[in-house]
Specification:
With 580 residues, the protein is α/β, with parallel strands linked by helices. It has 21 helices and 21 strands. Helix content is 33%, strand content 17%. It has a 21-stranded mixed β-sheet, covered by helices on one side. Helix 7 packs parallel to helix 8, helix 8 runs parallel beside helix 9 and helix 14 runs parallel beside helix 15.
Length: 580
């Protein structure tokens, strides 16, 4: 970032700069956080930043209105907009909560005619919105929908038909209203600009002939992620048309060994010399695993969270991937597979282990502290971990962070609630104390297991760069939450569920909430009265109580969502959302 502090001290330098020069300088500042800081230096810098900003990030669609955004930034070309809180991914938000993008697009269509990119996460986008998008922005190039809903094949077809400059269509973890796949046929026969096509988790059939023609025409295609509708016998045809791919996602099922198909697939995978990312969405016969081997040497990221590999097959695959920096797997690889990961991938920076069956809480196959520590022994460059397990020890966590002190994201999820150190029976306080003391760059932390208020005291005392904290089944009194709110100056998001924190804890953050993006609390000890006090004392916050149909208690605030907003209370709240 440009050193704004140095220029700020020299008022003469700032005043002598023309707006054009300032705008040229700021064009090199990409981080939205840095640009926000730049705009606070002085009025000249505020104006220059306003006119030079082309990319917009809004972490909560209710934190500001489309009208406010349009007045503030007149030259936006790219928008990333998030809607529902993260807990909607776990069915903790009733249907119909909100986050419809249509009003935003109506405003954008009048003020941003040169919009090129729209990226949405956890939002409602209907076919009418997609049609408006397709009709209003002649230079539109990129549409990314992540965990969105409300649209059908007709909406996607409108994008395909009308967005002649489209380079990216990324549909990830979305729910369509229908299962038709005729949207692929909407692309004109002379269309050839696509560089990214992802429909890996879209529950719809796709015409293979239309798809093959599209892939063949788009010679600049770098990312292709397919869903399960693509038959295995057709996969090799697509690979043969796109050997230039750098990212590939496949969703086929290969169960019965077919020698001819094996040879075709293996041959075409061997031709994919530029492949860097591989996502496998299948439950296949291990007989087919070697077909990937020819394309593995250049892989830097592999997503196997829908491929329940055993430790032996996983180890064989890893031996062909010396350059892996990121990997996501299921706990079916067991500790032995993680030991192979630690010994095979010294460049690893991020790994995630997800549960094959998140509802099976019994001790059995899966991963433990043994695999957790084994990866850290061999992968000293780690800075991100998401680890689901059924048991853990304080000693193992301490060893992991001693081996890898540069963690910025540490997400340990012990699936059995309130599980102590299984070797000593002690709380897991010292484990997370070691994390906060050792990892000075920590930005995101998820804690679990048997935890007392001592864990929260450690977090408040040492985690000075922490931005996001997720807590479940932890703490013993309001003091725990108070320690975090008082001690973490950079905290942006706080997510709490099934904890004993009550009104005292909630109201201890009065001086903090306006600097945060959001607070989520569910199944805690907060009451409607406590929420009302918060709303009265902090009028610039939106305090929403989300009622459950099965809970008739008018005193208990079962779920609360608190966030700062320049737009005031939202106007589209459904009846089950009480805005205080």
């Amino acid at each position: 970032m440009v050193s704004s502090q140095k220029l700020y001290k020299d008022n003469t330098s700032i005043k002598s700069m023309s707006n054009e020069v300032l705008e040229n300088i700021l064009s090199f500042v990409d981080s939205h956080k840095d640009r926000n800081s730049v705009s606070l230096v002085c009025k000249d810098w505020y104006d220059a930043e306003r006119w030079s900003r082309s990319k917009l990030f809004i972490g909560n669609c209710y934190a500001v209105s489309p009208e406010i955004v349009a007045r503030r930034f007149p030259r936006i070309k790219s928008v990333l907009l998030k809607g529902k809180p993260r807990f909607s991914d776990f069915n903790m938000l009733p249907p119909g909560w909100g986050a419809n993008v249509h009003a935003w697009l109506v405003k954008f269509s009048t003020v941003y005619p040169f919009l090129e990119e729209l990226r949405l996460k956890r939002m409602i986008i209907g076919d009418d919105s997609l049609q408006l998008l397709a009709d209003s922005f002649p230079s539109f190039k990129a549409l990314s929908l992540s965990s969105c809903e409300g649209f059908s094949s007709d909406g996607l077809k409108a994008i395909a038909k009308n967005c002649r400059n489209l380079t990216e269509l990324d549909i990830q973890d979305c729910v369509m209203l229908d299962g038709r796949g005729d949207w692929v046929s909407g692309f004109p026969e002379n269309f050839n600009s696509l560089e990214v096509l992802n429909f890996s988790r879209l529950d719809s059939d796709v015409n293979i002939d239309d798809l093959e023609k599209l892939v063949t025409r788009c010679i600049s295609l770098k990312v292709l992620k397919l869903n399960e509708s693509i038959p295995s016998e057709q996969l090799h045809r697509l690979l043969g048309c796109a050997t230039q791919l750098t990212e590939l996602g496949i969703g086929v099922s290969l169960q019965a060994p077919q020698n001819g198909l094996y040879m075709d697939l293996e041959s075409n995978f061997n031709k994919c010399k530029n492949l860097q990312v591989l996502t496998v969405l299948w439950d296949s016969n291990p007989f087919y695993l070697p077909i990937f081997f020819g394309a593995c040497s250049g892989l830097t990221f592999m997503n196997l969270t829908d491929a329940p590999l055993g430790s032996g097959d996983f180890s064989s695959l890893l031996s062909k991937c010396p350059n892996l920096c990121r990997i996501w797997v299921l706990d079916t690889v067991t500790d032995k597979g993680l030991e192979a990961l630690g010994s095979s991938c010294p460049l690893l920076e991020e790994y995630r282990v997800l549960p094959y069956d998140p509802y099976d809480l019994d001790d059995g196959p899966g991963v433990t502290e043994v695999g957790f520590e084994a990866v850290s022994n061999g992968c000293r460059k780690l800075h991100y971990v998401l680890y689901f397990c059924r048991k853990m020890t304080n000693a193992a966590v301490k060893a992991v962070v001693q081996n890898c002190p540069n963690f910025t994201h540490f997400r340990l999820c012990i699936m059995n609630p309130c599980q102590p150190d299984h070797t000593t029976g002690e709380p897991m306080d010292e484990a997370f104390g070691a994390v906060t003391k050792t990892c000075g760059k920590l930005k995101r932390l998820s804690i679990s297991g048997l935890l007392t208020d001592l864990t929260f005291e450690y977090i408040g005392r040492y985690a000075k760069k922490l931005e996001t904290l997720s807590v479940a089944f932890a703490g013993r009194s309001d003091r725990g939450m108070q320690c975090v709110l008082e001690g973490c100056p950079k905290l942006r998001k706080l997510e709490i569920r099934d904890c004993p924190f009550g009104n005292g804890a909630l109201l201890s953050g009065l001086a903090k909430y306006e600097t945060m993006r959001s607070l989520w609390m569910s199944s805690c000890a907060v009451t409607i009265r406590g929420c009302s006090v918060l709303a009265k004392q902090m009028p610039r916050l939106n305090v929403e109580v989300i009622k459950d149909e099965e809970n008739d208690d008018d005193l208990v605030a079962e779920k609360i969502y608190v966030y700062r907003s320049l737009a005031g209370p939202r106007t589209d709240a459904p009846p089950f959302v009480l805005t205080l």
